[in-house]
Write a structure and sequence with these properties.
Structural class: mainly beta
Number of helices: 1
Largest sheet: 6 strands, antiparallel
Number of strands: 6
Helix content: 10-25%
Strand content: over 45%
Radius of gyration: 13 Å
Order of helices and strands: EEEHEEE
């Protein structure tokens, strides 16, 4: 099982502060999860990003805050 995780990085006066990531959806395959990220990237303000660390991910920046959505393997449900 794979899940889409949302992580928010807040910009503050003393530096960046990260919120705890939240799993928002589960998919049976990594391909299904990535296809969902492609759909999210079509929303206004979101951009599809391919990085060596997170592979496919979606990013949105507003007022110095960054919201990231990416796929992770859910080993708890196995």
């Amino acid at each position: 099982m794979y899940g889409v995780v949302i992580a928010i990085m807040l910009a503050g006066a003393s530096g960046a502060e990260a919120k705890i990531p939240i799993m928002v959806a589960s998919y049976s395959t990594l391909n299904d999860c990535r296809l969902e990220l492609v759909e999210i990237s079509k929303l206004p303000g979101f951009e599809l990003v391919v990085s060596p660390l997170l592979s496919y991910s979606v990013a949105k920046e507003s007022n110095g805050d960054t919201t990231m959505a990416f796929c992770v393997k859910n080993i708890v449900s196995i």
